[in-house]
Amino acid sequence: MAMFDSLSKRLDGIFNNLGGQGKLTEEDVNTALREVRLALIEADVNLKVARQFVDRVKEKAIGSDVMGSLTPAQQVLSIVQEELIEVLGGTGENNRLDLGGSPPNIIMLVGLQGSGKTTSAAKLANYLRKQGQRPLLVAADMYRPAAVNQIKSLGKQLNIPVYSEPMGADPVDICVNALDYAREQAISVMILDTAGRLNIDERMMNEVTNIRARLKPREVLLVADAMTGQEAVRVADDFNKAVSLTGMVLTKMDGDARGGAALSIRSVTGVPVKFMGMGEKTDALEPFYPDRLASRILG
Ligand code: GDP
Q1: 116 is in an annotated binding site
Q2: pLDDT value at position 62?
Q3: What is the distance in A from the centroid of ligand 1 to the CA of 252?
Q4: What pLDDT is attached to residue 3?
Q5: Whose CA is nearest to atom 20 of ligand 1?
Q6: CA of 114 to the centre of ligand 1 (A)
Q7: For residue 147, is pLDDT > 60?
Q8: Which residues line ligand 1 (CB under 6 A)?
Q9: Per the annotation, does 209 bind a ligand?
Q10: Can you tell me the distance from the alpha carbon of 171 to that of 39, in angstroms, rounded to the nearest whole number?
Q11: How distant is the alpha carbon of residue 289 from its chain centre?
Q12: Ligand 1 centroid vs 58 CA: distance in angstroms?
């Protein structure tokens, strides 16, 4: 993956310098961990997250007596790998989408304009249909006129139904009406594309809160652009504090970002990343697997 290339090369270099065999001194381990911390910061990882990461690796390394082992470098590396998995979100069930309610389950997408929200709505519908669901896309973004046409055309292209109303309709009404329609049509999962703005503002948050209160979505997913690095982390933190998210979709992970958002966002917000966007096409969406990503990072 492009975004993690430099980080994985850097980490590789660090561990090669530690040597494959032979005993390490505490100084060796400290030097390596200083380099790990620098590599994380260069990848635009949140400073606090980078510091905690290195502290935990050091603690575990000391606890497991790597210095006395015959393969200390590999041991440090496997501790780093464990911590990478942890910082990316662990291996728990809460990384997966929860569609355990009685159908139609409702997934609400929120996010800033340009984050890839509308595209992700279509990708998610496409993904869920492949899992045997009957999805419905709901065009509830009344602030970007093009969004309604965009989602209609994506729906047409994928042959997935789209519920929409004329511009100017109230977004809460649209979602409520869409739910009636979904029940009539035996839809199993509804994906709400709600309004995005350039900045988080009170009106936007009120709208999200109102839709949430009326529709009681099973999932409220923030769509955030990984290319924006720590800005994406701040946006996620603000959204989570205002509307309490159940998960995130990190888009543009195929881009030339350095990995900082993916590596920081879970630790800072406590909200799991559930999917990642890997391109512009409607099939470029993958479930987010911390262990696989950790392996890719370490090369
Ligand atoms: P919205 O304003 O949040 O609804 O954003 P859009 O869905 O219109 O997406 C904005 C731009 O980002 C479009 O050009 C998309 O094709 C592009 N985009 C969305 N997701 C991804 C992704 O995962 N990778 C890449 N490379 N581009 C993406």
Answers
A1: yes
A2: 78
A3: 7
A4: 53
A5: 116
A6: 6
A7: yes
A8: 111, 113-119, 147, 196, 251-252, 254-255, 277-280, 284
A9: no
A10: 44
A11: 10
A12: 39
Cβ–Cβ < 8 Å for 215, 192: yes
Closest CA to 54 of 84, 88, 28, 27: 84
Task: Count each helix (H run) and each strand (E run) in the chain, helices first.
Answer: 11, 8
Distance from the alpha carbon of residue 120 to the mean position of ligand 1, in angstroms: 8
Residue 90 annotated as binding site:
no
What is the residue with the minimal CA distance to atom 27 of ligand 1? 280
**What whole-number distance in Å separates Cα of residue 78 and Cα of residue 84?**
10
Ligand 1 atom 9, closest CA: 116
Strands across the sheet containing 189-194: 162-163, 135-140, 189-194, 105-110, 219-225, 247-251, 273-277, 285-287
Of all atoms in ligand 1, which is nearest to the CA of residue 113?
Answer: 2
Among the ranges given (1-10, 134-143, 164-173), the one the predictor scored with the smallest mean pLDDT: 1-10
> 41 versus 163: which is more confidently predicted?
163
Q: Give residue 115's pLDDT.
A: 96
Please tell me the distance from the alpha carbon of residue 1 to that of residue 283, in angstroms, as a whole number: 17
Residue-wise pLDDT tens digits, 55-110: 999 888 877 777 677 677 778 888 889 999 999 999 877 789 999 999 999 999 99
CB-hemisphere CA count at 13 Å for 67?
10
At 201-222, the pLDDT tens digits run 888 889 999 999 999 999 999 9
Q: What is the DSSP letter of 67?
A: G
Q: Name the strand (E) or helix (H) holding 104.
A: none
Q: pLDDT category, 175, cuts 50, 70, 90?
A: very high
66 compared with 167, residue with greater pLDDT: 167
Q: How far apart are CA 207 and CA 195, in angstroms?
A: 8
User: What separation in Å is there between the alpha carbon of 77 and the centre of ligand 1?
Assistant: 35
Q: Which of 3, 118, 119 to mutate to test the pocket of ligand 1 (most atoms within 8 A of CB)?
A: 119
